[in-house]
Amino acid sequence: MLHPQVNAAAALRRRPPATEMTGDPYQILLGVRAAMEESNEAETGPELPLPVVADFDADGVPCRLYATRAGAPVLVYLHGGGWCYGSIETVDRFCRRVADRSGCAVVSVGYRLAPEHVFPAAIEDAETVLSYVRKSGLDLGLDPSRIAIGGDSAGGQLATVTARRQRDAATPLDFQVLIYPAIDPLTSAESYDEVGAYGLDRASMKLAWETWVPDPAQRFDPDVAPLAAADLTGMPATLIITAEYDALRDEGADYADALIAAGVPVVHTRYMGVNHGFARKLATIDAARAAADQVASSLRAALTF
Predict the structure, then answer these.
(1) Contact 219, 225 (CB under 8 A)
(2) Residue of 125, 152, 184, 246 marked catalytic
(3) Cys bridge to 144: 61, 113, 137, 222, which one at CB 3.0-4.6 A?
(4) What is the DSSP letter of 179?
């Protein structure tokens, strides 16, 4: 059963009238971006004070650092939003909580968004940030020898693609956190039919994929479709979080199974009664706080060595 908190949280975000939804697609997208930012405070709650919260430039990519101590291992985090919206601000409270409870630093990445910047711009930005953390992490007070990557939804896709590319470049990461990751550009999972009425449907997800990757032929590239990779062995140990009422639920589970089949240590947790996007809504959904704390404890176990 869908938790009542999900509907209460959804009511906090402004919904454009039907007349606006028939206009120019780009203006509609700008409206969605604005509505997400406007509701952010109500959905995610007040700022958790931390010893270090600092914006910085990672060779041209805007980032925000969250830390509670010097010399901490690092989670590089990529926000969700269908590669088209979302920001450092929309995951700010989530990153603060994870940094506070894990003892790890979090570097949140303001990667370039589509349609202004299509594939592979966001992946390039993620790799630029990783390179910067390795090169300049000591100057930031971090331990660049222990790095995890993570993200939610589109950010989960970017995170695991980047992790595979780092493996292939012989610079492997220590851990990955994938929160309801977008895995299948074909949107073929049965969960779209079963729970697509609960906030994320097939049409919306297809539009997100097509906006980020306009060339249909590129959607079969492993850098777009993680399951198209020929070999998943050697990927970092993984935490995957999915949600019962999320259209991306089944593809996240399929990816967990594929990683396990490749010998990768995986913990897959499905949160019941919640839908896509729940994990950042710390002020409104109890399960969000539980998910953030699970991420934190997993990072502490994986990186504190």
Answers:
(1) yes
(2) 246
(3) 137
(4) E
Please name which of 152, 137, 35, 103 lies closest in space to residue 298, comparing C-alpha atoms: 103
Q: What is the pLDDT of residues 69-79, one digit of tens each?
A: 999 999 999 99
- Residues 6 or more apart whose CB falls under 8 angstroms from that of 168 comprise none
- Whether 87 is a known active-site residue: answer no
Q: Which two tokens stand for residue 122?
A: 């966001």
Buried b or exposed e, range 258-292, using 16+ CB within 10 angstroms: bbeeeebebebebbebbbbbbbbbbbbbebbbebb
Among candidate residues 153, 174, 223, 250, the one labeled active-site is 153
Q: Rounded to whole angstroms, how far apart are CA atoms 185 and 216?
A: 10
- pTM (two decimals): 0.97
pLDDT the model gives residue 5: 97
Catalytic residue among 125, 184, 276, 298, which? 276
- CA 191 to CA 252: how far, in whole Å? 11
Q: How far apart are CA 136 and CA 74, in angstroms?
A: 12
DSSP string for 191-232? HHHHHTTSS--HHHHHHHHHHH--SGGGGGSTTT-GGG-S--
Whether the predicted pLDDT of 9 surpasses 60:
yes
Q: Which residues pair with 106 in a beta bridge?
A: 66, 75
Distance CA 72, CA 101 (A): 12
168 is an active site residue = no
Instruction: Verify whether residue 297 is a known catalytic residue.
Output: no
**pLDDT tens for residues 244-283?**
999 999 999 999 999 999 999 999 999 999 999 999 999 9
